Amino acid sequence: MELAVEKRGRNPVGAGEGMASELDLDLSAAMDALTAPGGPLETTTLHRFGRDLPVLKGAPPHLPALFDHYCAQHADLVYLVDGDLRLTFAQVHALAREAAIGLVARHGVQVSDRVGIAARNSANWIIAYMAVLMAGGCATLLNGWWTAEEMAGAIALSECTLILADPPRAARIGGLEHSASVVVFEHGDPRLGLAPLMDAGTAELPPLGPDDLASILFTSGSTGQCKGAVSDHRGVVHGAMSYAAQTLMTYTYLANRGEAPTVQPCALVAVPLFHVTGEVVLLLQSFILGRKLVLMEKWDATEAIRLIAAEHVTYFVGVPLMSFEIARHPDRDRYDLSSCVTFAAGGAPRPVEHVHVIRDALPHAYPILGYGLTETNGVGCGNFNQNYMDKPGSTGPASRPLVEVAILDDEGAHLPQGEVGEVAIRSIANFTGYWRNAQATAAAVTSDGFFRTGDLGYLDRDGYLFIVDRKKDIIIRGGENIAASEVEAALYSHPGVAEASIFGLPDERLGEVPVAVFVARPGVVLTAEDLREFLGTRLAPYKIPVRFWEETAKLPRLGTEKVDKRALRARYAAQWTQT
After folding, report:
1. How far is Cα 332 from Cα 335, in angstroms, rounded to an integer?
2. Residue from 380, 464, 469, 468 nearest 17 by CA
């Protein structure tokens, strides 16, 4: 029973605004006990972002210290299951240390060097990630679905000195100009696959502090410009610890009821590790919990339910379509899924009706929902179990004991309960800024340290957050952020396109998908196939619109002469529901 979030969740205003259940009081009492003086979640304060913010007294100072402590604590427990490969926490730690020594001794990695990782999910991705951090590097997580040009752009932006890539991604970026050296590693047996990184020497790894660079994750802004969200070790550690705090809170609640879990927790990894959900919610939190991770190479609902039954998975997180596909799978009843008591969602809107479908199909389990962003290291709000059933339109209250949520107007003033404004999040886990982009950082972070999410919402009388819209022109397709302006720019580069507009429309599986409306230049005949083929050479496949509509008149405009996307969306939404 763990909180799960990924970049953004959105639900309709007014959906499920009933009073929170008594579970709120029980969970609050459990957190009060955990955060009391001498408790495992006792807090102190640290002056940051111009304010004294709560921090956990017992948090490790940096990620290598987190690895050292918890891998020793859970040494003999199985940590990673990747096909036929099974590795304990101790084995993973030893392999990562050997690879870290190799990164320093063989590849010259120094503290704060940006080291990119470009690969699919695997045990070796995780070991390489740990090794980069133990060597003092800044883990720069490249989107494995990007085109070669998109990947090269992120490498240049973050000034990577070294890239660790599996063969498909290495081939993708090999012919492009960039300043980084590329080391190719394979999946499978770590001793073989990670041999180019390994060094059995005894060299000392560099000392690190909480303010050293830990990670860069990439996010699409409304301008379409790729931005690198930078976090230090303190922020990423507290992101993981914040999730562990929510889990410990629910375990304490269950223990008070005599229902504490007695088996090793186990999570299915069906989301990419280069996303904040994969990195923080699944990977890093699992060190703290002693949780087994079962890796999937790619999403397949049939394989997911087989693995849940075979490995006794207790926790599942993914974009909403994944839980929905499990709940609706025709072979679901052929497998024993009773071990999996939590089906979490984040990263895309979960339709309210999905909540009841999942609960009805899997009555032994609860769906839960969270809200957070790359820039907050995933932390924000969480809506648990019966509370989620009572308020399925909400992403829950701010996660204690670290997170504050505010609703701001355009000038940054705090709005009262019930009023709609921009959602803002402040915690010690927030990123430190966008890499080499002070202007974007200043626009996103208030003077008192709140990150402006670009989402519009309000807080109800119980402190539950409801997301009602987005300020930024971002489409979230199955957890992937798509900047509409980037797709529009690519479409406008077609010589036959006179006008174009890209926006999202709802999709039962993916939350929403991009669609296009265009006007062709006089005398030019364009088909959807023409445009799809044209965009296929310029954009990652998930960014390409699933539907193209042609207009013969000028697109509707606002007083600012910008295309009126609200009018277009309303016009085509009716047609969309009929297709």
Report:
1. 6
2. 464
Side chain identity at 532, as an amino acid letter? R
Instruction: Write down the pLDDT at residue 163.
Output: 97
Largest CA distance in the chain: 76
Strand 292-295's sheet: what is its strand order? 85-88, 78-82, 292-295, 266-269, 315-318, 342-345, 366-372, 380-383
Q: Which of 465, 29, 40, 20 is nearest to 245 (CA)?
A: 40
Helix/strand number for the chain, H first, E second: 18, 26
Q: Which amino acid is at 37?
A: P
List, for residues 106-135, the tens digit of each pLDDT value. Answer: 999 999 999 999 999 999 999 999 999 999
Alpha carbon distance 381, 574 (integer Å)? 33
CB 352 within 8 A of CB 15: yes
**Backbone Cα Rg of the chain:** 23
Both tokens of 83, joined, read: 């096909």
Report pTM: 0.84
Q: Which residues pair with 423 in a beta bridge?
A: 407
Which amino acid, residue 43?
A: T
8 A C-beta contact, residue 393 and residue 380: no
Q: How distant, in Å, are the alpha carbons of 132, 135, 159, 445 from that of 108?
A: 12, 10, 15, 35
Residue 556 is classified by DSSP as: P
pLDDT tens sequence across 348-380: 667 777 788 899 999 999 889 899 999 999 999
